[in-house]
UniProtKB/TrEMBL annotation:
Ranges of residues in domain ABC transporter: 1-220
Source species taxonomy: Bacteria, Bacillati, Actinomycetota, Actinomycetes, Micrococcales
Record keywords: ATP-binding, Nucleotide-binding, Transport
Nucleotide-binding in keyword set: yes
GO terms of molecular function: ATP binding; ATP hydrolysis activity
Name the UniProt record assigns to this protein: ATP-binding cassette domain-containing protein
InterPro entries: AAA+_ATPase, ABC_SmlMolc_Importer, ABC_transporter-like_ATP-bd, ABC_transporter-like_CS, P-loop_NTPase
Pfam family membership, one: ABC_tran
Length: 231
């Protein structure tokens, strides 16, 4: 796929070619400004492309995006914020209230259901944001630096929590991050993004003892201009 922003001297995306497999978590690492967010927004259909396309296994596939900023309605409760995700569904009439209760349980937020979100910690608020995304019953969850504003301990807790959640709900997840540990913790595969034409994708046995040093060695080599290699 190809994308240039108006007035930019170089394209933000060029020649990027990747396949997201059902049920996997693909983590994309890259430095600031390399185009990770543009790629994620393009996959979500939020960014018109100049060339190429995003193809779906199923035309009805639904996406939900979680950004770094939870973007909640501060005066509404945890429950109301999660329910809002469901109300934006195409089939809003069929939206079940019990789905919100299920989600509150899955998210570990049942005790806080009626708390205004402005009283939550950053980590709790980001769990609500994930819950609001899950309320649309997405086939693919797109995460753009979802935990980078949190302290390291909370970030690690939420990464492990999300890994369990993705496995339990059999989610397909596309994550962009500049945090190597986050990519190792969450990714079944890790892609390396070094800007236009610098995308690399590699199987990484991320749950199997891969070290940050090994990932960083790939990461540093990602900008050699050799283009895509996809396993
Ligand atoms: N709306 C926009 N208009 C013009 N240029 C943009 C816009 N959004 C991003 N860019 C440019 O496109 C390039 C890629 O930006 P993008 O946000 O995708 O990178 P990123 O890897 O996600 O960075 P970060 O980690 O800092 O979020 C950058 O050079 C950026 O300045």
């Amino acid at each position: 796929m190809r994308k240039s922003y108006p007035g930019a001297s170089a394209p933000a995306l060029d020649g990027v070619d990747l396949t997201l497999r059902s049920g996997e978590t693909l983590a994309v690492l890259g430095p600031s400004g390399s185009g990770k967010s543009t790629l994620l927004r393009a996959i979500a259909g939020l960014e018109p492309l100049d060339g190429g396309s995003v193809e779906f296994g199923d035309a009805d596939e639904r996406f939900a995006v979680v950004f770094q900023d939870p973007g909640l309605f501060p005066w509404l409760s945890v429950r109301q914020n999660i329910a809002l995700g469901g109300r934006y569904r195409r089939n809003r009439d069929r939206f079940e209230d019990s789905r919100v209760d299920d989600l509150l349980g899955i998210l570990g937020l049942a005790a806080l259901a009626h708390t205004p979100v402005q009283e939550l910690s950053g980590g709790q608020a980001q769990r609500v944001s994930v819950g609001r995304a899950l309320a649309v019953r997405p086939d693919v969850l797109l995460l753009d630096e979802p935990f980078s504003a949190l302290d390291p301990a909370t970030r690690k807790d939420l990464q492990l929590w999300l890994r369990g959640l993705a496995a339990e709900l059999e989610l397909t997840v596309f994550l962009v991050t500049h945090d190597v540990d986050e990519a190792i913790t969450l990714g079944d595969r890790i892609g390396f993004f070094a800007g236009p034409r610098g995308f690399r994708q590699q199987w990484v046995p991320a749950q199997d003892g891969t070290t940050a040093e090994q990932i960083l060695a790939h990461y540093r080599g990602a900008g050699d201009g050799s283009g895509n290699w996809v396993i």
